[in-house]
Design a protein that fits this description.
By secondary structure, the chain is an alpha/beta fold.
Length: 1004
């Protein structure tokens, strides 16, 4: 947290900084009574006597009372402290009496002389010796110098110098290797910046970089590597000054003029550089104005050597700091005015795609603090344009955070609008690594790719700039001389030849059959006699094929027709032949499929079996503990398919809706009345509420013999539920209570409703609305109109055309000759059985795949029971599940895309509320449970919006809202995936609903 100093303290800090040469960030002052406390700190502790000498000389020339406010009492004593940054206690302290400054100066001069003599005799103090030798590049001195900081962290240091030969270079260069050994694994971010600062502080010559290797004692492989850029600060300043950076130019000019006691202030307006020369130290305003000739002789050679990019001229002023008008002015034309290559600004060059200009602008953008870049090397940028994509690597001693750099770079590249660039890919890593720690990509234009893009590999140093990005695929290039266009042309020619050959072959075959002729052949060539012969040949072949097919079908029927004795022994006595045949066939098939190779001896109940309750082999990750659940019931998928195929109602383009509706209609036909409780919703209802468990739990609560049906449909939204309740089912087919089990994503009006869109395009949808309109208007029709319509229909039935009579006689004649015509119903039934067996095998295969944790598509193919419920035994295991499924966060989930509860889904829900109220049907909405893995911060926010929406609507009569979304967030055994319950969770939800006192269950 930054602290804003009072104005008087700010002026004191600046005065101490100018007097001692210590940066203002290393000076702190406090006024306590008549005493002034001054703390001087730096990366290395300031030398006591040198600092005091500079400060005492400044005190001789300065009246401290002028630097303080008029309310402040006079200062009598000054306490000066010195310490290293990061330490809690000062290394030294000295008290100065302002009325005895001369005596203090004498004491300091004697101490400086004593230190000088001592240095000549003993070689100086240890710290100075280590730093001095380290600056000369001595490896042992560098190790001792670094150990002063790292020893406190329990890290020992060893330094070596190794030769290496860079790519594209004939000469070898020195590289500094620093080995850090420790008994633990220190975090790279803890050591990176301190080591980088201390190494760069030495200003070593002859080294481009240093490699820091951290290794844990006893380990053979290094823990991590770190590269430190040892480019001298002067070189960095000149590089940026060459591109026209104002701060870098001001820093260079200040170093040149510091010996002349001249300060510099620099600004840029348009393409002109304005340089103000002022006295470096003038607290009392008595210092002379800098000499014009001296300043120009120092400044002009520097600007000529720098030749800043895009700066055409410089204006130099000489004045005092507080003056409004300069004392003297001079103008200077810079090299950019003479050479066009220097005239364009870095931004203009970047707009043309100049990569060095873009690198400078990006590094300047990512390193706003020039001092910090000079201390640590800052964030370095490597750039490459390949395949119309701009790849940008950002590395630093501590890996830059994606939030820190990605948005800035993306916004900057968008502003450039470089032609030919379709996207930008940004990467971040720690200096010294080749692989990025993170990556981020944005397409500036729409791009279509058939394969995913390969992650580029950047070299560790900019010397290998030509090898930054590897091949986009790992496949070897067999013919590097071929271009992409040549390959595409070759493929096109081969495809064209293949099409021409296939067309010619098909044409010859059709002409040889004599059924087709050349389009340009004259009519005279088509003789009638030849046409009659061809017709007789093909007619005879067709007749023979028909007779042979009829004979084969007759034999198949004869083989599959059981004798009366076998039929009486095997067929069960049942009122419904259809149900008996389906059930017995299903059970027999299952026994043949699963137990054909096993013993006929039944295993005892307590013996563990390799099969679970759903007749699937148990997976390795199935939990050993047994969970409560309702017994599995007979599957009804085969019956539902058959009933849907025989139904007179057209399809709704949603297979599961057709099958669930067929099962529901069969239930109505069998019982003669609607069920007592109807469960409806999406797949979360289909898998999440068990009718059998709910009925059993309600019986224990005093509601016996309640009939419950689950009408869940995968992907059902509020619009789908509204259509089913108000248009598909008749009011007489609805129960007195509806349990709507779902969640927030079914009410998202911002996303595309794919299920309802498919449903609305069906023939069944149109017929349902026509039936609704006809039912609404049937009572308003006059009686004579109805009678006339019936009379007209009867007249149409009596008009039988001649061709129908001929067709009937031919059918009768064919029946007397054919062996299969009379048994055509049996043939149809046999074909249907074969199709059902094929569909069942597909279902079993998908269910076996489910045990390994497959997608929702395979789950949707599993069989529901006759109550419409889909029981899943698989238990959600995150470790196994996310190996085969990507973890999709809420902000990338299409179910929550543009989330809003207002819109078409809200309108449909309001229609359901009005309809149920008019029909006196109790509507209960249950917000189904979710896992903690699914409820990330984005989805939690949307869930809260949805709950507020539901609570507002809970005031409506006949509507009850129950929230179970946070019921078992950590109990993964109750879920089949992050957002769907399995049959064990469905059992618990059913019990909880049965025990809910707020739900008005019906009483028989």
């Amino acid at each position: 947290m930054k602290t804003v100093l009072p104005d008087r303290q700010q002026s004191l800090v600046q005065w101490v900084s100018q007097a001692t040469g210590i940066n203002t960030f290393g000076v702190k002052v406090r006024l306590r009574g008549n005493d002034l406390h001054i703390l001087c700190e730096g990366t290395e502790c300031p030398q006591r006597w040198r600092t005091l000498s500079d400060l005492l000389q400044a005190l001789q020339q300065t009246n401290l009372d002028i630097l303080t406010s008029s309310e402040q009492t006079s200062i009598y004593q000054v306490f000066v402290y010195g310490r290293r940054k990061g330490e809690q206690r000062p290394s030294w302290c000295h008290r100065v009496h302002l009325n005895q400054i001369d005596k203090h100066l004498d004491q300091v001069q004697q101490a400086l002389l004593a230190d000088s003599e001592k240095s000549k005799q003993s070689g100086g103090a240890l710290i100075v010796s280590n730093e001095s030798l380290a600056r000369q590049g001595n490896p042992e001195a560098i190790a001792r110098y670094l150990s002063e900081t790292l020893s406190t962290l329990g890290v020992s240091v060893q330094v070596k110098i190794k030769l290496y030969k860079p790519k594209n270079s004939q000469s070898e260069e020195n590289r500094l290797w620093i080995f850090c050994h420790s008994s633990y694994s220190p975090d790279a971010s803890l050591l990176a910046e301190p080591i980088a600062q201390k190494l760069r502080y030495l200003k070593l010559s002859g080294y481009q970089d240093a490699v820091i290797v951290s290794q844990v004692s006893g380990e053979t492989a290094p823990d991590w590597l770190l590269r430190v850029d040892l480019t001298p600060p002067e070189v960095m300043l000149k590089e940026w000054a060459r591109w026209g950076d104002i701060q870098a130019i001001a820093r260079l000019l200040t170093e040149v003029l510091s010996g002349l006691k001249v300060g510099v202030q620099v600004s840029l307006k348009e393409s002109t550089l304005h340089i103000f020369c002022i006295p470096a130290f003038d607290p009392l305003g008595t210092a002379p104005i800098p000499d014009k000739v001296v300043c120009l002789e120092a400044i002009l050679p520097q600007l000529e050597a720098i030749a800043p990019q895009g700066i055409l001229a410089a204006t130099i002023y000489g004045q005092k700091a507080g003056d409004k008008e300069p004392t003297w002015i001079d103008w200077l034309a810079l090299p950019a005015a003479k050479y066009p290559a220097f005239a364009l600004s870095p931004l203009d060059l970047a707009n043309t795609g100049d990569e060095p200009a873009m690198v400078f602008l990006l590094e300047r953008l990512l390193n706003p603090d020039l001092d910090w870049r000079l201390l640590t090397g800052g964030i370095r940028v490597l750039l490459l344009n390949k395949n119309r994509l701009l790849h940008i690597m950002c590395d630093a001693p501590v890996c830059p955070q994606r939030q820190q750099v990605a948005s800035k770079i993306t916004q900057f590249i968008r502003q450039l609008k470089i032609s030919g660039i379709m996207g930008v890919r940004i990467y971040g890593r720690r200096a010294g690594n080749k692989e990025p720690f993170w990556h981020y990509g944005v397409d500036l234009e729409h791009r279509q790719r058939l394969v995913p893009e390969a992650t580029p590999e950047f070299a560790a140093t900019s010397i290998y700039i030509n090898d930054l990005v590897t091949s986009e695929t790992s496949e070897p290039i067999l013919r590097p001389d071929l271009t992409t266009e040549e390959v595409q042309n070759f493929v096109t020619e081969v495809a064209r030849d293949w099409i021409a050959t296939a067309s010619s072959t098909a044409r010859k075959f059709l002409l040889k059959s004599q059924l087709f002729t050349e389009s340009n052949e004259s009519a005279e060539a088509n003789h009638d006699v030849q046409g009659i012969k061809i017709a007789l040949v093909w007619g005879t072949l067709g007749l023979l094929l028909t007779l042979q097919t009829d004979w084969v079908l007759g034999r198949i029927i004869a083989l599959n027709t059981p004798t009366p004795k076998v039929a009486s022994a095997t067929l069960p006595s049942s009122s419904s032949e259809q149900k008996a045949s389906l059930t017995s066939g299903k059970n027999q098939t299952e026994k043949t499929t699963f137990f054909s190779s096993t013993s006929k001896t039944k295993s005892p109940p307590n013996q563990s079996s390799v099969f679970n309750a759903s007749e699937f082999t148990q997976s390795d990750d199935t939990p050993k503990n047994n969970l409560a659940a309702a017994p599995l019931k007979e599957k009804a998928t085969a019956t539902a398919i058959l009933l849907a195929a025989r139904s007179q109602m057209p399809s709704f383009n949603v297979r599961q809706l057709d099958e669930q509706l067929a099962l529901y209609k069969q239930r109505l036909a069998r019982t003669g009345s609607p069920p007592d409780v109807l469960i409806i919703g999406s797949s979360r209802a289909l898998r999440g509420v068990d009718p059998a468990a709910l009925s059993k739990a309600l019986a224990t609560q005093g509601y016996p013999n309640l009939d419950v049906f689950n009408f869940g449909i995968n992907g059902a939204t509020a619009q789908v539920v509204d259509f089913v309740i108000r248009h598909v089912l008749e009011p007489s087919e609805l129960p007195k209570i509806i349990i709507w089990a779902d969640g927030a994503r079914a009410f998202n009006g911002g996303r595309e409703d794919i299920t309802f869109k498919s449903l609305a395009a069906s023939v069944g949808y149109k017929q349902a609305f026509q039936k609704t309109a006809t039912t609404a208007n049937s009572n308003d029709l006059p009686e004579n109109t109805v009678n006339s319509e019936e009379q007209k229909t009867n007249e149409e039935k009596q008009e039988i055309s001649t061709y129908e009579a001929v067709n009937q006689s031919l059918n009768q004649a064919l029946a007397s000759v054919s062996s299969s015509y009379q048994n055509r119903d049996q043939i149809k039934s046999l074909l249907q059985k074969q199709l059902l067996l094929f569909g069942k095998n597909q279902t079993v295969a998908s269910q076996k795949q489910l045990t390994d944790g497959t997608s929702d598509e395979s789950i949707s193919q599993q069989a529901v029971d006759f109550d419409g419920f889909l029981p899943l035994s698989i238990r959600f295991n995150p470790a196994r599940y996310y190996q085969k499924h990507s973890r999709v966060p809420g902000n990338y989930d299409n179910d929550y895309k543009s989330f809003q509860v207002e819109g078409q889904q809200d309108t449909a829900f309001q229609e359901v509320l009005q309809f149920t109220q008019s029909q006196k049907i109790s509507l209960v909405f249950v917000n189904m449970p979710l896992t903690a893995d699914y409820l990330d911060p984005v989805r939690k926010q949307y869930e809260q919006q949805f709950q507020q929406y539901m609570l507002r609507l809970a005031t409506n009569p006949n509507f009850i809202y129950r929230d179970l979304s946070q019921q078992w967030p950590k109990v993964n055994d109750f879920f089949s995936d992050p957002s769907h319950l399995n049959r064990f969770g469905a059992y618990e939800v059913s019990k909880k609903l049965a025990n809910d006192p707020m739900i008005p269950w019906p009483v028989k």
